[in-house]
C-alpha cells in the first residue's frame, strides 16, 4: 500500500510517497480502508517538529480519517467488516490503510460522504467544545469569529448560528467575507493582512466594536492570534469570554488590564486534551454534530480535494493560510 510520510524535519515538500506493508490490526484495533483524510493545522506543525506531540519517524501525517473497516482485530466488539467509520488518530491518516483503536471510532451515518465525515470531528469538535463548554454560548449572544473563512472559523459561524447567536465574521479579504456570509454570518469585518501599527490596531478595534454593537461581543472565538487578538479583546462585552483556539499569526501579548476593565475571561480551548479527559462528553458532542449535519444546520465546506500523491500540496496551502474551508485528501473511491 502507499503512504505519504515524513522522514526528516521539514515542510510539506519533504514528504515522500512510500510503498509500505499493510498494517495488521492488533488486539482492540480494526484495519480501516481510508477513503478521506482531512488536513488540519496540527499537520503543518507536526512535520516541522513544532507541535506538542512528536511521533517517531517515519510516519504519515493526517489525524482525521473516514473509511470502511476492512478487518477486525481480536477483542473488538460492536464493529464489523464493511462498517463506515470516522476516527481521530493523531497521525497516520495519509495512507491507504491504517490500523485504528476501536475506541477512537465513530459510525458514519448512511448518506454522509466520507469527505464530509472526515471534515467534521476536529474543526466542529473543537468549536462545539469551545462554544458550549468554554464560551457558555446562549441564544442572543454576539459572537465575533477571527479567521472566519477557514475550517475552524466556518464551523464557529455555523454553530454560532445554530445556537442562536448573532455572528460577526472577521476575515482577511472580501472574497473570504462572502464565504462567511454564505455560511450564515450576520456581518463581516475585513482586517488588514500586513503589519499593523498602533493607529491601525485602534482602527480595527473600532471596526469590531461597530460591528458587534454597543454592548460588544459576548464571545470572541480567536483562531488567528498575533496582532489581531488585542483589537478583538477591546471589543468584548462586560463579562465576555475570549476563547483562545489557535495562533497561526503568532502568540498574542494581551494587555491584562482590559480583563479587569471588562470583567472578562480569557479561556483556552484545548480540544485534544478534552477528548482524552472526558471521552463520554466528547462522544455525545460528536453525536450532536452528526444530528446537526443531518438536519442541515451545519455543512462542512470542502473547497479542494487532493489525491494522496499531492497531499503535501494540501498541507502547504493550509500552512500558507491560503485555504478556505476544509482541504481533504481522498483515496480510492472517495465519497462512495
Key descriptive features of the protein:
11 helices, 26% strand, 7-stranded mixed β-sheet
Total beta-strand segments? 15
Provide the helix percentage.
25-40%
Q: Between the first and last Cα atoms, what is the distance in angstroms?
A: 20 Å
The overall pLDDT, averaged over residues, is 95
Low-confidence segments, ≥5 residues, pLDDT <50? none
Counted by DSSP, the helix tally is 11
Q: What is the gyration radius calculated from CA atoms? A: 20 Å
| Main β sheet profile | 7 strands, mixed
The helix-strand sequence is EEEHEEEEHHEHEHEHEHEHEHHEHE
Structural class: alpha/beta
Overall form: globular
* Fraction of residues in β-strands: 25-35%
Question: What's the gist of this structure?
Answer:
This protein has 336 residues and is an alpha/beta fold. Helix content is 31%, strand content 26%.
Structure characterization notes:
The chain is of the alpha/beta class and 336 residues long. 31% of the residues lie in helices and 26% in strands. The protein is built from eleven helices and 15 strands. The protein has helices at 41-46, 114-118, 121-134, 151-162, 174-182, 198-212, 229-234, 257-262, 271-277, 279-294, 311-319; strands spanning 2-5, 16-19, 29-39, 64-72, 84-88, 97-101, 105-107, 142-146, 166-171, 187-190, 217-222, 236-244, 265-268, 302-307, 326-330. Strands 3, 4, 5, 6, 7, 14 and 15 form a seven-stranded mixed β-sheet that branches. A six-stranded parallel β-sheet has the order 10-9-8-11-12-13, sandwiched between helices. The protein has a two-stranded antiparallel sheet with strand order 1-2. Strand 9, helix 5 (174-182) and strand 10 (187-190) form a beta-alpha-beta unit. The longest helix has 16 residues, at 279-294. The radius of gyration is 20 Å and the shape is globular. It starts with a strand and ends in a 6-residue tail after the last strand.
